[in-house]
Amino acid sequence: MFDEALISAARTSKAWPFQEAMKLVKRFNGSKKDQDGNIVPVLFETGYGPSGLPHIGTFQEVLRTTLVRRAYEIVASEDGTPAPTRLVAFSDDMDGLRKVPDNVPNKELLSENLGKPLTRIPDPFGTHESFAHHNNARLRDFLDRFGFDYEFVSASDRYNSGAFDEALRQVLRKYDDIQAIMLPTLREERRKTYSPVLPVSPKSGIVLQVPVEVVDAEAGIVRFEDDGETIEHCILGGQAKLQWKVDWAMRWYALGVDYEMCGKDLTDSVTQSGRIVQVLGGRKPEGMIYELFLDANGEKISKSKGNGLSIEEWLTYGSEESLGHYLFANPKSAKQLHIGVIPRAVDEYWQFRAAIPGQEWDKRMGNPAWNLLHAAGKDATGNVEGAGDTLPVTYGLLLNLVSVLGAEATREQVWAYLGNYIADASPEAYPDLDVLVGTALAYNRDFVAPTLNRRAPAANEAAALRELDAYLATIPADTSAEDMQTEVYEIGKKEEYAFENLRDWFKALYQTLLGSDQGPRMGSFIALYGVENSRKLIADALAKA
Fold first, then answer.
1. How far is CA 224 from CA 175, 214, 437, in A?
2. Is the pTM of this model over 0.85?
3. 185-194 contacts: CB < 8 A, separation 24 or more?
């Protein structure tokens, strides 16, 4: 049960999932109700084109929609119980295959079936009924892997079963009105062949892009040219599909979709589909248009360029939660999506998670970690399980440890060093940290170790390093990381070493001892790596002076 304080804070929250959810509250003047006044589920939808494999864009859209869904369950609650919702993951698998993807086997098999609906093309992987069935299975495995709560809906199933037939009749009834919306948006050449309806050729099985004349809307009969022959053809029961923008509108109308977000590249589609669904007699869903991802150079990510970052790559070098954290913030602002953003995202996620217990409800609503834990269904009250959890070391510190151990470091070695810093250090005691040990080893091997370059210290830097070494040689074994950090500060502040500021001193430590421009709190690093091992790093640096 949600308490009144939580519901009240949610309804006034400035956090984007709650702002989006309040659009739905305003749409229905409260929670959604049927004609008899009974509360009914709000339908959220995400779409997917199975001509390729699911990717990070698929994940972000389902995740962000889920965040809005969970926010709505709070803001529309009338008696403390979550307002009912549904999430449909819709696969547009009735689409005709336009080109052969690069990342599939048996490309000749697909080439022979270009233009046919994806569910009527043999599976080049040889494991499923069709190419679309294979990719749909991958999509469902992908969503299940992250624990999303959703209902899978296939366009082909809906078309073939006749579930869309009445909506298709409505498209034929409103054919001229739909043409009046679409034709002005097209180039002159495209207007000559454009039709909202794409019949499936009874001869070739290909989804045809030809002008269509409505013969009998109620019977679903249309007339068109097929390989030089004029034929009359029923479009019902899977014998046709609709053009994209019309198809999207028809789906909203037929399913009764209340909320769907999309990327900035579909802005025009939202506009035209919104007008078409009104012509059909439905209502445009609420939704958010989010910005697209950029690569490390600030360029738009493109599948053909291969300049993006896959979800598999993110999970190789960072955690699942950190990906969710990165996607939470500012969805209407473009984000750079590259390997370099991962370490910070990991540490920020745990910082936000640790902060949850001390936050009032209004602050929690904007906390990415609280939203992610709540979306995962950790606790329906909003007092999420895992709130306040912390890691005993930061990911940044862990990466620094692994970097000095070298590219050949092992998980066992890392845990042995962690024993210097953590009581009871073991993968079993700290499973979340163990995940990060594995990702840190991979990140170091692939991106850090090849770039490390420990430079020689300048004369003033060498003198300061000698004093640090002398200090470490005399301290008791149980000296705290904080005490060592204080001494590092004091050395850097001494006038005799002529550092302009403490930043220069720490930069010297990072560059001469760790081989990087950035690094951890040195007291924490020394405690983790060990005093004697740290003294060896200093000795190696001084040998270059």
1. 15, 9, 62
2. yes
3. 185/268, 185/272, 194/243
